[in-house]
Amino acid sequence: MYAIVRAGGRQEKVAVGDLISVDRVQAKRGETVVLPTVLIVDGDKVNSDAAGVTVTAEVIDHNRGPKIEILRYKNKTGYRRRQGHRADLTDVQIISIGSEKIAAADKATAKAKPVVAKKAAPVAKKAEAAPVAKAPAAEVAEKPAAKKAAPAAKKAAAPAKKAAPAKKAPVAKKAAAPAKKAPAAKKAAPKKTEK
Question: Fewest beta carbons within 10 Å, which of 67, 72, 109, 161?
Fold first, then answer.
């Protein structure tokens, strides 16, 4: 069984379970919409007076169609008009035609749109340069005083070094300017010979 329905200024051939894109419908995801029927075909029977039969569709998602580029151009006059267009569309799934209904397993679901995460705040350079390794809690409980005392002991034991005065680099003499290139000689044109 299939039906011809009016959808967005066009006619569409639909069967139960079909996914179609129609012009934007003012309904939220999951809501149902009744499409006006033009013709019903059930096996050998064709019913053009489909007043008692309703075609019900469920809204799956709202999106936009492909970009259409429009360019008007007239030769030799400098006339150009460029325009673009994208149609607002709604994806719907046909869930019933008259008494025939879709099976629950065949229902489509809306595609989850990826969530774009915001960028994290920049981390200080000191934290990046020296990552801190964390020890298990048992080790921290055993020797907290010994770990704190070790860096202080190293500082006291290290001999004090005095900074040596920086030596000055020898001053280089100015390099002589490169010699100027002689102008290139002009190539002699080939001589014409008369016959």
Answer: 161
Length of the chain: 195
Please, are residues 5 and 20 in contact by the beta-carbon 8 Å criterion? no
Amino acid at 137: A
Convert the pLDDT of each residue in 111-131 to its tens digit: 655 556 666 666 655 555 555
Residues 6+ apart with CB under 8 A from 55: 3, 5, 14, 34, 35, 37, 94, 96, 97
Q: Give the span between the Cα atoms of 28 and 47, in whole angstroms.
A: 32
Q: Please state, in angstroms and rounded to a whole number, the distance separating the CA atoms of residues 133 and 81.
A: 64
Q: Mind listing the pLDDT tens digit for each residue in 119-163?
A: 666 665 555 555 555 555 555 555 555 555 555 555 555 555 566
Decide: 27 and 92 in contact? Cβ < 8 Å. Answer: no
Residues 6 or more apart whose Cβ sits within 8 Å of residue 120: none
DSSP-assigned letters across all residues of 76-104: TTTEEEEEEE--EEEEEEEEEETTEE--G
CA–centroid distance for 171 within its chain: 57
